């Protein structure tokens, strides 16, 4: 399996000049823990994650160090910007670690562990084409739990057609991800309206070659941030 077979294609991004508040609200609204930072030309320039909001002056969690210790460590200016900066460019990780769309799962895991990151932008040359996270890896494990064989070329074609059928609509789930094995489709992502769930399932069922559709779409309340797993996942959890 390779990155393009498990990655999330509908990537939510943020601009480097966006405010910290905008970034935080975007992550909460889309129920994601990190955002690729893309400039006006569409180039990937960084990544901002939940970890960048841990040490912030607004919530009183900035590092408490004596002046001389800060001078000795030589990082007081860097810390100050991280803790008080108002723009995404102030807190983001520059030159993020990336993988190509043909990277194997082993290469992805090695890159995550070596660099201590939870998500990797997926590139086609200089173009951002997706993002792969620990969640995507978990979804891959879940889809292979019954020792279903590796995806065939037909599965890849089905995956592309299901994406096309769902992603073009205004009700398309946020962070839509699709895994296909032997014609069996696993849908995951975030919805804010239960009607979107049925629409996504129906769209997938109508794609030629699809034998069955599993629903892993998570419902999120945009006001409170409360979320619920899909009815199918809830039933599976009870059965387990």
Automatic annotation (TrEMBL):
InterPro entries assigned to the protein according to its UniProt record, in alphabetical order: BON_dom, CBS_dom, CBS_dom_sf, Diverse_CBS-Domain, UCP036990_CBS_BON
CBS domain sequence ranges: 7-65, 92-147
SUPFAM superfamilies from the UniProt entry: CBS-domain pair
Residues passing through the membrane, by range: none
UniProt cross-references to CDD domains, sorted A to Z: CBS_pair_BON_assoc
Domain BON: 154-221
Keywords: CBS domain
Pfam family, one: BON
Domain of life: Bacteria
Name used for this protein in its record: BON domain-containing protein
């Amino acid at each position: 399996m390779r990155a393009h077979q498990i990655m999330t294609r509908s990537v939510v991004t943020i601009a480097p000049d966006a405010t910290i508040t905008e970034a935080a609200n975007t992550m909460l609204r889309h129920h994601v823990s990190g955002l690729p930072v893309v400039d006006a030309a569409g180039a990937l320039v960084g990544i901002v994650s939940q970890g960048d909001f841990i040490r912030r002056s607004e919530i009183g969690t900035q590092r408490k160090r004596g002046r001389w210790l800060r001078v000795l460590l030589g990082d007081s200016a860097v810390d100050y910007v991280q803790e008080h900066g108002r723009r995404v460019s102030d807190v983001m990780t520059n030159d993020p670690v990336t993988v190509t769309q043909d990277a194997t799962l082993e290469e992805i895991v090695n890159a995550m562990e070596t660099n201590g990151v939870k998500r990797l932008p997926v590139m086609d040359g200089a173009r951002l084409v997706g993002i792969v996270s620990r969640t995507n890896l978990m979804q891959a494990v879940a889809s292979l739990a019954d020792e279903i064989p590796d995806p065939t070329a037909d599965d890849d074609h089905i995956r592309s057609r299901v994406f096309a059928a769902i992603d073009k609509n205004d009700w398309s789930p946020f962070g839509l991800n699709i895994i296909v094995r032997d014609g069996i489709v696993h849908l995951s992502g975030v919805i804010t309206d239960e009607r979107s769930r049925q629409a996504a399932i129906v769209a997938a069922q109508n794609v030629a070659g699809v034998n069955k559709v599993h629903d892993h779409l998570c419902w999120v309340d945009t006001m409170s941030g409360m979320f619920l797993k899909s009815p199918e996942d809830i039933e599976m959890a009870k059965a387990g």
